[in-house]
Amino acid sequence: MAEEVKKMNKVRYYATGKRKTSIARVWLVSGSGEIVINDQKLEEINGPFSLKTYVIKPLVLTNTRDRYDVKATVKGGGTTGQAEAVMYGIAKVLNNVSEEYRRILKTEGLLTRDCRIVERKKYGKKKARKGTQYRKR
């Protein structure tokens, strides 16, 4: 659940975002729009441009890109899962900041957690569901 923490007259918001096996802890503080993920600025992170647009999508939709600083720490999973976990965490934080943003984020589907994860491998199978090939002769 998102929560609000007050520290030295600064309001700091917190939420957790999850996707696949990635877990993102996201803090939102009023500032100039700087986004830091795992102690790296968003511009310095190597990866596809589309993943960077995933991260800033909730901020762009609510027109708060230059109003808040985002600090996130992400663990587990790959680059796509981590980017989507941060996006979901930012959306949850913005929902906690103001109820006005809820309608915008909800219509875009950003407040719904994508719970799909990789299915485990079963014994007697080559993969989760793929079995051995049938041989008649």
Number of beta strands: 6
**What is the radius of gyration?**
19 Å
How much of the sequence lies in strands comes to 25-35%
Tell me the strand order in the biggest sheet: 1-2-3-6-4-5
Low-pLDDT segments, ≥5 res: none
The percent range for helix content is 25-40%
Shape: elongated
Output mean pLDDT.
91
Which class in CATH terms?
Alpha Beta
Textual characterization of the structure:
- This protein is α+β, with helices and mostly antiparallel strands and 137 residues long.
- The chain has a single domain (3-107), classed as Ribosomal Protein S5, domain 2 (2-Layer Sandwich), CATH 3.30.230.
- Helix content is 29%, strand content 27%.
- It has three helices and six strands, in the order E-E-E-E-E-H-E-H-H.
- The chain has helices spanning 49-61, 79-97, 100-107; strands at residues 3-7, 10-19, 22-30, 35-37, 40-41, 68-75.
- The chain has a six-stranded mixed β-sheet with strand order 1-2-3-6-4-5.
- Helix 2 (79-97) packs antiparallel against helix 3 (100-107).
- The radius of gyration is 19 Å and the shape is elongated.
- It starts with a strand and ends in a 30-residue tail after the last helix.
- The model has no long low-confidence stretch (mean pLDDT 91).
